[in-house]
Design goal:
The complex is a heterodimer of chains A (623) and B (140). The longest helix of chain A is centred in the middle third of the chain and has 85 residues. In chain A, 47% of the residues lie in helices and 20% in strands. Chain A has three domains: 126 residues, 2-Layer Sandwich (Beta-Lactamase), CATH 3.30.450.20; 209 residues, 2-Layer Sandwich (Beta-Lactamase), CATH 3.30.450; 173 residues, Heat Shock Protein 90. Chain A contains 18 helices and 20 strands. In chain A, helix 5 packs parallel to helix 12. Chain B has a five-stranded parallel sheet with strand order 2-1-3-4-5, with helices on both faces. Classes of the chains: A alpha+beta (623), B alpha/beta (140). The interface between A and B is medium-sized, with 27 and 21 residues.
């Protein structure tokens, strides 16, 4: 059927051109065919004959053959009386390329012009519409089809990358970023791998470490999850969330697996390290490698084939992204790896942004801390200034008071000497002398609180000192509805102290405790033995000390009490420290405070040349 | 610091050199507060001393120059010159004259000028320390 049937040979005016025409038709880069009015193919050019020959070599199935298609088109064209189109299924040509063909057939109707005024009147009406057969062309549209296909794929890839990019931009939390990445790699709407693993470079230890993974642990689970997800039409972004929920706690296995991966950056034979160094995506099968570390990666992950892409940001490699299809055993296509590489670029950027954000957050934190320190230092400076000003005033006032006190007390003592102890005024005068002395001592303490005087030391029972102090405070204790609970250590060794000063120190501590319990409460005072120290613990059930004040409670002139000068605890602290002891405070807001005083049993004052200035028993006796 | 600084106690004053056995030691008390003077005058005279008082530096120096003074109890804050400033004036009159600095302040103790004094006492209503120091210095 390859020859043109020259049935009109004699009548044709261009008979000398037919062989030329035939040659032209044969050389055309497309198939040409013609059928008779019954649909029988009567001509095919060389191109078409070749095509059919090739196709017949490839498959013998009549249904899909080009010839079959041509016959179908011709038939359709004759029946419908107008042009007809068809496209064949792709087949491989002699070069092994996928070939797509398009067919177009045109019905050849009688081309004699319809007479207008009786000329050629013998031609019947039916002659005008009678078909003389069909001519058609077969065109190779493979290139167009390929372009279309790759365009579609590119669009879908771009939309995936765009969606993942959007999702990645929505967070700066590294953990979330990693999750999005892995879901993007595995989600059906994404790259569609079965499982994905992320390994990041630990620069300090020069290790590539498995961080996080995603993926079902078996095919059944995978099927169930994907069936669940595919019932709803979701965008990738929605999938990112629902897949995360669906997989929650089900990807423990893969996460456990990935954490087992720790590869030294120096392992040149390892394909992950190679991928990082060459900054190149790789796809590798288990049977392609001899390296032990490579084999162990396949074994740990239970994979036969893996795709790996490096995470590169500005020439710096952060780690690698690994993916496999070990659940459905689908081979890893080169295209998938390429796409994963583009994807990895987004990932690197997101990871880098997150790191930068973290750094920024750290810097902001540091800045905040620095600001706070500056604020604290300013406060301290202000306090120091207040201290120095108040200190000066206090010192002046104390000095001004000292002279009158000396005079009052001096005269009282002077008069006392001449009075008989039985005299009714004797007692009152003694009170004047004693009270004056007390004021003088307070003045001493105020003036010397930085250097409390080293006065004479006595071995005393601390429990007794506490009792005496509490007796002195009986009025305040009752007035404030305070219950005092004493838990004295029964065999507490005596301490070497100045009893007056210790009483003063304890008095300030107890007074503070009472002040903290305006509605009444319990003041528990315990004595204990602590190594070479005696410990007094004063615990109240008051409102406690705010945390921000804890560092200042022993500072001079620090007070929250409107009526106080802020020296009480300072003096206590100085007295205790001067005795070689220690004072500590702990407090919980709303629950109360505990003040602990530690005093050495042996005392730490070496200077015993100091004379007593007390109106004590000895003075009494001398008189 | 109400203690006598022992290391600065000079040799006790020998009464025999300047006064007879019959006359009690004369103490000059210098203080700007009248009541303080009254107290010291009362207490010391009761103890048998002859007491002279002055409220200012100039008066004090005049008394020391013109009459018998065996010891000076000297306040630091005074009208006019302060106690530390006139310490050396007293020494010029009599280089052996015992002087006790007696102040409401303990801070002057670290002032090197105060080292010229035989003792430094911080004021107290309890005069025992002062009296004891005086006794030691005038050997009375």
């Amino acid at each position: 059927m390859s020859n043109f049937e020259k049935k009109n040979n004699e009548t044709s005016p261009v008979c000398f051109c037919i062989s030329d025409l035939e040659e032209v038709l044969d050389r055309l880069p497309m198939g040409i065919f013609k059928s008779d009015e019954k649909g029988n193919l009567i001509y095919m050019n060389e191109y078409l004959t070749k095509l059919i020959g090739e196709q017949q070599r490839e498959k013998s199935k009549e249904v899909n053959s080009l010839e079959h298609h041509i016959n179908q088109v011709v038939k359709e064209c004759l029946t419908r009386g107008k042009s007809s189109f068809a496209e064949t299924k792709p087949f491989e040509n002699s070069k092994g390329e996928q070939t797509f063909l398009a067919l177009e057939a045109i019905n050849l109707k009688n081309n004699i012009e319809k007479p207008i005024n009786g000329e050629l009147a013998d031609v019947s009406t039916s002659e005008w519409s009678r078909s003389r057969g069909v001519v058609g062309v077969v065109e190779d549209i493979s290139e167009k089809a390929h372009l279309e296909k790759s365009l579609k794929k590119k669009i879908s890839e771009l939309s995936i990358i765009c969606e993942v990019g959007n999702a990645l931009r929505s967070t700066l939390n590294l953990e979330e970023i990693l999750e999005i990445i892995l879901i993007g790699v595995t989600a059906g709407q994404g790259l569609g791998f079965n499982r994905a693993f992320l390994l990041l470079l630990n620069e300090e230890e020069n290790l590539l470490e498995g961080k996080i993974a995603i993926g079902p642990s078996n095919p059944a689970e995978a099927k169930r999850i994907w069936e669940d997800l595919s019932t709803k039409k979701q965008s990738l972004e929605e999938v990112l969330h629902s897949y995360k929920d669906a997989l929650r706690k089900k990807d423990i296995l893969v996460n456990d697996l990935v954490k087992k991966l720790r590869i030294a950056s120096s392992d040149q034979k390892n394909f992950l390290i190679q991928s990082m160094q060459q900054k190149k995506a790789l796809s590798i099968r288990k049977d392609e490698t001899d390296s032990e570390t490579n084999k162990s990666i396949f074994e740990v992950l239970g994979a036969d084939s893996l795709a790996v892409v490096p995470l590169v940001f500005k020439d710096k490699v952060n780690g690698v992204l690994l993916a496999d299809n070990s659940i459905n055993q689908k081979p890893i296509e080169e295209e998938d790896v390429k796409l994963m590489q583009i994807f990895a670029h987004h990932v690197s950027t997101a990871i880098e942004s997150s790191k930068l954000y973290q750094k920024l957050a750290e810097q902001v934190n540091k800045l905040e801390e620095a600001n706070q320190r500056i604020a604290e230092n300013t406060q301290r400076l202000l306090r120091a200034e207040k201290l120095s000003v108040l200190g000066e005033i206090t010192s002046q006032v104390a000095h001004e008071l000292r002279n009158p006190m000396t005079i009052i007390g001096g005269f009282a003592r002077s008069l006392l000497k001449k009075k008989d102890a039985q005299d009714s005024d004797y007692e009152y005068m003694k009170i004047i002398a004693q009270e004056t002395e007390r004021v003088e001592k307070v003045l001493d303490n105020v003036l010397n609180f930085t250097k409390p005087e080293k006065t004479n030391l006595e071995k005393v029972d601390l429990n007794q000192i506490i009792d005496q102090t509490l007796e002195m405070m009986e009025g305040e204790i009752n007035l404030n509805k305070i219950t005092v609970m004493k838990l004295p250590h029964p065999d507490l060794p005596r301490v070497m102290v100045n009893p007056d000063q210790i009483r003063h120190a304890l008095l300030n501590i107890f007074r503070n405790a009472i002040w903290a319990m305006p509605q009444g409460g319990i003041l528990s005072i315990t004595t204990k033995k602590k190594g070479s120290f005696a410990k007094v613990e004063s615990k109240d059930t008051g409102f406690g000390i705010p945390k921000e004040h804890m560092g200042s409670i022993f500072d001079a002139f620090f007070t929250t009490k409107p009526e106080s000068c802020g020296l009480g605890l300072t003096i206590s602290s100085e007295i205790i420290k001067n005795h070689g002891g220690l004072i500590m405070a702990e407090s919980e807001k709303g629950k109360g405070s505990i003040f602990s005083v530690l005093l050495p049993f042996e005392g730490s004052f070496a200077d015993d040349s100091i004379k007593s200035l007390n109106l004590g028993e000895e003075d009494e006796k001398r008189k | 610091m109400k203690n006598v600084s022992n290391e600065r106690n000079f040799a006790p004053y020998h009464t025999g050199q300047n006064r007879t056995q019959m006359t009690p030691p004369a103490i000059l008390v210098v203080d700007d507060e009248e009541h303080m003077l009254r107290l010291y005058e009362k207490e010391l005279s009761e103890d048998g001393y002859q007491v002279k008082t002055a409220t200012g530096a100039e008066d004090a120096l005049k008394i020391a120059q013109n009459g018998q003074v065996d010891l000076v109890v000297l306040d630091i804050k005074l009208e006019g010159k302060n106690g530390l400033e006139i310490l050396s004036d007293f020494r010029r009159i009599n280089k052996d004259l015992p002087i006790i600095l007696n102040s409401a302040y303990s801070t002057y103790k670290s002032d090197f000028q105060s080292w010229l004094a035989d003792a430094y006492l911080v004021k107290s209503s309890n005069l025992e320390e002062l009296k004891k120091t005086i006794r030691e210095l005038v050997n009375f």
